[in-house]
Amino acid sequence: MIMDFDTPGASMRDMAAVDPRLTVFEAKPDAPGAQVLEARLENGVKVFDLEASVIRWSILPGETVEAYAYNGQVPGPTLRVTEGDRVRINVTNRLPESTTVHWHGLILPNDMDGPAEITQAPIEPGGTYAYEYTVGQHGTYFYHTHDHVDRQQSLGLYGALIIDPKDPANEIPADLEYTVQLQEWLKRERLTYPSMPMEGGFPNFFTINGKAYPSTETIRMKLGQTLKVRFVCSHTTAIHPMHIHGGPFQVAAVDGETLAESARYLADTVNVGPGQRFDVLWQAQRPGKWLLHCHIPHHTTNNKRRDGRGWRADAGNRGRVLSDLGAGNG
Ligand SMILES: [Cu+2]
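Above: inputs. Below: predicted complex with copper (II) ion.
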């Protein structure tokens, strides 16, 4: 990392590698992230518990990272609620530094919004803060840390917040759905650093839902079916031109807001910038294996992994088989 005499010590700490000795949990190599977290009902309020800690997380067989994680997984648990719900999220901090949680895109009381020192005192290590509000919107949203964000979100403190509409008629219809959460990682000499868009901070591993190709997921569907892909731009370093093979998709919602029919448009690539969300509808028009990947080729590599035949850039870790279609298959 480049530092000069004016770089504050706190910034240097935020850029530092995660101390492996702080790891309190090692996830199983095939443990999935973004698992739907069931709420418990307390006097009509849907209650969720999130706990942030340092974990060891597997992005590929034999390739682990030290991550900051909610509930021991990357991405953090998916919170799925319904428009109109009253929710309470108890956030407990087991990190070595303070943290908060921001509910990106939601209309809520100011002291529930999350920015550290702006709307609340940060949650100190060992502390808990209860976020409570009524959900008035619907669509694809997400939550992420809002303290030491440059470090903590880059290391994994984010998760999807999917809000179903109160009136099912307001749902964007699809046969299947799949949420894509992107993240960049920087691993060097066995240590994990928060990736940052600066000299020395650029990432060398890229994940979809916490896993690099070929450990990413496969969606199986039938010809004619429609898949809703929710791109959740949880990453922090780059804008990723996300592309799906096999025909254009329809952009149906942006940043949680459903587009009017007349405003929807066809595309085959959408520039997914940090913080943005896109709901796109892709129809399986031909049988086969169709890829979903970032169109910056370097983002489809795993640190230029050596495979015995020399360095190769075509490992395609951002690539994944989107559908394995076959007439009568699936
Ligand atoms: Cu990319």
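The helical segments are 9-15, 149-152.
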